[in-house]
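User: quick one, sequence for these C-alpha cells?
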C-alpha cells in the first residue's frame, strides 16, 4: 500500500464511532466475544482438539450453522484448516469431476478459476467474466461442465449476486460465500456447496474453512474418493474432511480461539433472530452508506445497479479532487481504520465493511467523520 502524507486533521470526539473498525477482513470482533474467550481460555486453549470440550464446540458450530442457514435434511457442515483459499485447492481434487465453469467479477472469484486452470488433471475451465462493478449473467454451464462456481459477494469490488441454480445445469453449484455467509440471505435449494472462512460476517479469525454441503455434494465427495484416480494431499482431501467433520473434529490441529469466536458470534446471531436479524443489521448499515454517498456531490456508489450493491461490503468512489488514500489515512490517524480500497482495483475509492457485528450507528458516525475530513481537504 502506497504511503501518503497525512494532514493533521483532528476529528471531534463526539463525531467518532464507538468502535472504529471497518475492515473487510479480518473484521471487527465484538468485545463481548473477546471477553468471553479470555474467561474460557484457561479451560479451552492449550487443550486437545480430539477431546470432548473442543469436539463439543465443533458440534455446536455445525448444528448452529445448520440452524442459521435452514439447511434441509441430508445436508452436512464440513470444516478444515486453511481458509477458503485452501478450499479452492481441495475442490479441484474432490468436487470437480472434469470441468468447472466460473463467473469471474473480481479478484477472489478469479482466483478459484485460476486454481482450476492450473490443475493438470482437469479440463480447461470455462470462465465467464464481467467488468468490476457488476457480475456476469447466470446461465447454464457449457458442455462438459460438472461444477458451476459462483461468488455470493465479491469482497474486492462490493458486488453481490442473488444465488440461483441455472436452468439446464447438470452439475453442482458451489458458492464462495466468504464475505457473505451470515450476512446475506440464500436458498439452499439453489446451491450444493456454500463455503466460507469465518473472519468476516462471523467475526472470528481466519485459517479455517467451513462448507455446507447438499446430499449431491456429499455423494460427489464420496464418489471422487472411491475413484482413487488422482493423488490428493491428505490436508486437501474432502473425503478425510468429511470423515473428521462427522466426528466433530478436523484432520489437523485447528486454532481453538478461532473456533470459540465463531461459536460465540453464531450464538449471538441465533439469539438475535437468526439470519434475518444478521442480514437486517447489514442492510440498515448499507442503507446509511449508500444514501449518504448519493447525497454527496463528491461521492458515488461504485456499483451502479442497486440490486447488485453489496449490503456487507460497500465500495464508494470519490471525486478525483478528494484523494481517498488521504481520507483513509486521516481516519486511521483518528482511530477509524481499514477503509482503504482493494489494492488491485486501483480506484479512488473507500471500501467499508458492513458486517453484522458492526453497529449501524457506528456506520452513521463514520459518514460524519468522512464529511468532516473532506470538508477540511476541500
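Assistant:
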Amino acid at each position: 500500500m502506497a504511503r501518503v502524507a497525512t494532514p493533521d486533521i483532528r476529528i471531534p470526539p463526539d463525531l467518532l464511532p464507538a468502535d472504529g473498525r471497518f475492515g473487510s477482513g479480518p473484521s471487527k470482533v465484538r468485545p463481548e466475544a473477546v471477553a468471553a474467550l479470555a474467561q474460557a481460555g484457561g479451560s479451552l486453549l492449550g487443550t486437545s482438539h480430539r477431546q470432548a470440550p473442543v469436539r463439543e464446540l465443533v458440534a455446536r458450530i455445525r448444528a448452529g450453522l445448520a440452524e442459521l442457514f435452514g439447511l434441509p435434511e441430508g445436508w452436512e457442515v464440513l470444516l478444515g484448516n486453511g481458509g477458503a483459499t485452501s478450499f479452492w485447492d481441495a475442490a479441484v481434487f474432490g468436487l470437480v469431476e472434469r470441468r468447472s465453469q466460473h463467473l469471474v467479477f473480481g479478484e477472489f472469484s478469479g482466483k478459484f478459476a485460476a486454481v482450476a486452470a492450473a490443475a493438470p488433471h482437469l479440463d480447461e475451465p470455462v470462465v465467464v467474466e464481467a467488468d468490476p462493478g457488476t457480475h456476469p449473467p447466470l446461465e447454464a454451464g457449457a458442455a462438459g461442465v460438472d461444477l458451476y462456481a459462483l461468488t455470493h459477494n465479491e469482497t474486492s469490488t462490493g458486488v453481490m449476486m442473488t444465488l440461483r441454480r441455472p436452468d439446464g445445469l447438470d452439475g453442482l453449484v458451489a458458492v464462495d460465500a466468504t464475505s457473505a455467509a451470515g450476512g446475506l440471505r440464500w436458498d439452499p435449494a439453489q446451491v450444493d456447496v456454500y463455503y466460507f472462512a469465518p473472519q468476516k460476517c462471523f467475526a472470528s479469525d481466519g485459517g479455517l474453512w467451513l462448507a455446507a454441503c447438499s446430499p449431491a455434494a456429499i455423494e460427489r465427495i464420496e464418489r471422487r474418493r472411491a475413484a482413487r484416480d488422482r493423488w490428493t494431499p491428505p490436508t486437501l482431501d474432502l473425503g478425510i474432511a468429511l470423515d473428521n467433520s462427522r466426528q466433530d473434529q478436523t484432520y489437523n490441529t485447528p486454532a481453538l480461539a478461532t473456533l470459540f469466536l465463531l461459536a460465540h458470534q453464531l450464538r449471538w446471531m441465533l439469539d438475535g433472530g437468526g439470519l434475518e436479524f444478521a442480514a437486517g443489521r447489514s442492510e440498515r448499515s448499507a442503507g446509511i452508506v449508500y444514501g449518504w454517498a448519493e447525497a454527496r456531490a463528491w461521492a458515488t456508489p461504485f456499483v451502479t445497479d442497486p440490486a447488485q450493491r453489496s449490503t456487507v461490503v460497500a465500495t464508494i468512489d470519490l471525486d478525483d479532487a478528494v484523494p481517498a488514500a488521504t481520507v483513509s489515512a486521516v481516519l486511521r490517524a483518528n482511530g477509524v481504520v481499514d477503509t482503504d480500497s482493494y489494492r488491485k482495483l486501483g480506484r479512488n475509492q473507500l471500501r467499508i465493511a458492513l458486517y453484522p457485528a458492526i453497529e449501524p450507528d457506528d456506520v452513521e458516525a463514520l459518514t460524519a467523520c468522512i464529511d468532516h475530513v473532506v470538508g477540511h481537504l476541500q
